[in-house]
Amino acid sequence: MSYDRYVAICKPLHYGTLMDSRACATMAAAAWGAGVLSSLLHTASTFSLPLCQGNVVNQFFCEIPQILKLSCSGSYLREVVLLIFSACLCFGCFVFIVVSYVQIFMAVLRMPSEQGRHKAFSTCLPHLAVVSLFLSTAIYANLKPPSISSPLLDLTVALLYSVVPPTLNPIIYSVRNREIKNILRKGLK
What is the 3-state secondary structure (H, E, C) of the chain? Predict the structure, then answer.
């Protein structure tokens, strides 16, 4: 999304050539590939962990930090290494997003038209808000020390990064559509 917004705002005349179906397929394949690789590595690692404290996870899904709490001490070093690998992967994506948005904001601030700046910012800010919510809560959930953990806090943070962003995405992007806005206005009247 950030690269799409970058091309649309910073290189609008080249949008058709830079964001062709091959570029979109390549970016989608890279995202899916990285996600599949990361999830396979984590799944293989967590399935091989010996659980010494039972098998009841105090969560609505089997989140890695919750499973690590149940494992025997010292036996989860592999999973910590994989969490570091995943963090590096996510950090690379984060740097890419930040660089894209810095370029976008620099281009937008150079726009002479107030209406053009408003339109560009309204295009980018919803995506940036959802990504920020997801990244901040996911990073907090996976990097917080176990000493400050509580079941309610863990559940709330997991809910914030696993349910809220996917729920907000279609709402944010469909509300921008004029037809959807008109339907919502008619429905609310």
Answer: CHHHHHHHHHCHHHHHHHCCHHHHHHHHHHHHHHHHHHHHHHHHHHHCCCECCCCCCCCCCCCHHHHHHHECCCCCHHHHHHHHHHHHHHHHHHHHHHHHHHHHHHHHHCCCCHHHHHHHHHHHHHHHHHHHHHHHHHHHHHHCCHHHCCHHHHHHHHHHHHCHHHHHHHHHHHHCCHHHHHHHHHHHC
